[in-house]
């Protein structure tokens, strides 16, 4: 059994934290394709780019990511895709707060 000294432990922990942080940024940066209504997941979740529900839009959903002020933003439900902030799908959940 090998032992890990404090320096090695801190190096591994620091590397892991940096990797997790940069990995999350990379996932958001990779979302560049706008979600199509023809996408199988979009169809399964009844995604529409124009919500008919006044208080339920992608822009106020807990799954949307990225900065406010952009018309299309990444969504955790549709990895690698951008959704319209005015859109809606059946996975919509109001953002807390």
Automatic annotation (TrEMBL):
Record GO biological process: aerobic electron transport chain
Occurrences of domain High potential iron-sulfur proteins family profile (ranges): 29-97
One Pfam family of this chain: HIPIP
Domain of life: Bacteria
Gene Ontology molecular-function annotations: 4 iron, 4 sulfur cluster binding; electron transfer activity; metal ion binding
Keywords: 4Fe-4S, Electron transport, Iron, Iron-sulfur, Metal-binding, Signal, Transport
Function: Specific class of high-redox-potential 4Fe-4S ferredoxins. Functions in anaerobic electron transport in most purple and in some other photosynthetic bacteria and in at least one genus (Paracoccus) of halophilic, denitrifying bacteria.
Protein name per the record: High-potential iron-sulfur protein
